[in-house]
Fold:
Amino acid sequence: MRYKVYLSHPIRGATGTPQEIAANCAAAIDTAWLVRHLLRPGYEVYVPAEQDLFPQIAMDLDYLTVDQVLAVDFEIIWGCDYLIADTRIPSNGVQKEIAFAREIGLTVLTFDDLPKLVECCETIKELGK
Structure:
């Protein structure tokens, strides 16, 4: 069986500047590499930062709002088995994704440092047995 894991992470951060968005997305992609390494095989990890170019441009052009992007994220979360949330940087989006995942009964694990991230991955592997 292949399990799906949603990696919730800050994107806009405190300021929402292009530099902060780029730094947050780069950090999330690095985190995703580690999560995939720790969970492999049998786990598919979805990372919003890896798909962020389109939503950022659409929001810059006022075609989409943050809430509309989050609504799409919620649809993706529906199809997942687990949610791992990066809580190192305060994020309204991450908090909304956590609340939604809990509301639909997903296992939600949070981390704010590397040892806790490793623990999250070990927990998911144990639950997936």
